[in-house]
């Protein structure tokens, strides 16, 4: 089915100047960028976005990192978009990510892991609505 998913290019990848290379991977996999915005997240925005992780030990480091520089946020649309995007990203921990994935190629650590992607269609709808109007 045609789905939408939320993608965030995180501060480490924006600082590395690889937004275009990452966009090319989306486009090459048939994902269409249907909305996009570069922004510097406030602490409130980052905490709200990651609210599901609030009780995890890594929450503060995660929020500190996500507000450390600009991010590029986009909604991607295409056949099976959630899974296609997750396959492009690779495992959360770049040390475990398959060769040729975005995280294997551009990420340095589980915190500075280059990209975020929705993990399911229902989560994607919530995440897209968090950043973009209809
Ligand atoms: P992301 O897909 O943006 O969702 C939550 C983020 O928390 C994750 O990517 C990682 O960058 C970060 N994180 C740090 N430590 C962990 C961990 N142990 N498990 C999962 N995510 C972690």
TrEMBL record:
Active site: 116 (pros-phosphohistidine intermediate)
EC number: 2.7.4.6
Pfam families: NDK
A GO molecular-function descriptor: metal ion binding
UniProt xrefs under HAMAP family: NDP_kinase
Family the UniProt entry places it in: Belongs to the NDK family.
Record function comment: Major role in the synthesis of nucleoside triphosphates other than ATP. The ATP gamma phosphate is transferred to the NDP beta phosphate via a ping-pong mechanism, using a phosphorylated active-site intermediate.
Record's protein name: Nucleoside diphosphate kinase
Species: Massilia psychrophila
């Amino acid at each position: 089915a045609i789905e939408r998913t939320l993608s965030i290019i995180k501060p480490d990848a924006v600082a590395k100047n690889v937004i275009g290379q990452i966009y090319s991977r989306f486009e090459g996999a048939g994902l269409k960028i249907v909305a996009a915005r570069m922004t510097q997240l406030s602490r409130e925005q980052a905490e709200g976005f990651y609210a599901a992780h609030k009780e995890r030990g890594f929450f503060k480091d995660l929020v500190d990192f996500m507000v450390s520089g600009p991010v590029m946020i986009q909604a991607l649309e295409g056949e099976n978009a959630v899974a296609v995007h997750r396959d492009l990203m690779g495992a959360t921990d770049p040390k475990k990510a398959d060769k040729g994935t975005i995280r294997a190629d551009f990420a340095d650590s589980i915190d500075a892991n280059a990209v975020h992607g929705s993990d399911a269609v229902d989560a994607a709808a919530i995440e897209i609505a968090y950043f973009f109007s209809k």
